[in-house]
Known about the structure:
Blueprint: E1 3-10, E2 19-25, H1 33-43, E3 48-53, E4 58-63, E5 68-69, H2 73-85, E6 95-99, E7 102-109, E8 112-118, E9 123-124, H3 129-135, E10 141-144, E11 148-152, H4 156-161, H5 166-169, E12 176-182, E13 189-195, E14 200-203, H6 210-221, E15 225-230, E16 236-242, E17 246-251, E18 253-261
Parallel strand pairs: 2-3, 4-6, 11-12, 13-15
Antiparallel strand pairs: 1-2, 1-18, 3-4, 4-5, 6-7, 7-8, 8-17, 9-10, 10-11, 12-13, 13-14, 15-16, 16-17
Amino acid sequence: MTVSIFVIDAFTDHEFTGNPAAVCQMGRQEAHDSWLQAVAREMRHSETAFVWKTENDFRLRWFTPAVEVDLCGHATLAAAHALWEAGELSHNEEARFRTRSGKLTARREGTWILLDFPDEPVEPAASPAELLRGIGVPLRFVGRNRMDYLVEVESEDVVRDLKPDLRQLGKLEARGIIVTAAGSGGYDFVSRFFAPRVGVDEDPVCGSAHCALAPYWGQRLAKKSMTARQVSERGGVISIDVGQNRIVLGGHAKTILTGTLLPNVVPM
């Protein structure tokens, strides 16, 4: 059994920027969760995606170096890109995935890859002491959804310059913390995403965080279509269209590495 593996930079059209994800094409080969987690830990990217071919679609799971997660945007984009690159799908075919967050799809439109994702709006929430100490700057808004905290701060410069206390943030019972502010230079808003509790100190470009950011800023700005930038060190750009309980996230992808796992490490 051969397992093909790709490393793909997502939400960017330039190599070594955006968010790198590993993608393992598993064919129809099952594997124990412990093996999947070991591969993700070995790859050390914020997410490793595992893709299985089924009769009519693909099954998709995402692992950080520490845990399996319920939703991941950049690794879904990378998984779809890998299927098209490997010829598992023709370039005009939609990629359909069955996941822990239901059915997700990806399609190509010109050079863009468009993901159809659920929205994950936040509700106003209290500010735990660990959040206040961890962010370390005044908060304009604090919200919470089933996965993350979302906090708005004063400005784009505050987001860019933020030096959070990751030890404090890791104490919060949440997947991660989204920090955001209104944008400039053609971007409607900017953000960064920290998830030390699940083994990712900072995710360079987090697609699933934009499932919360899109309805939040869509309401604030009274806009359905927006462009966002994640202002991590690597950086990346996401286009957004807000629908009825769904979000279309758009981005590019760049393949950096392809290879195969050696037969002696592949489950039989």
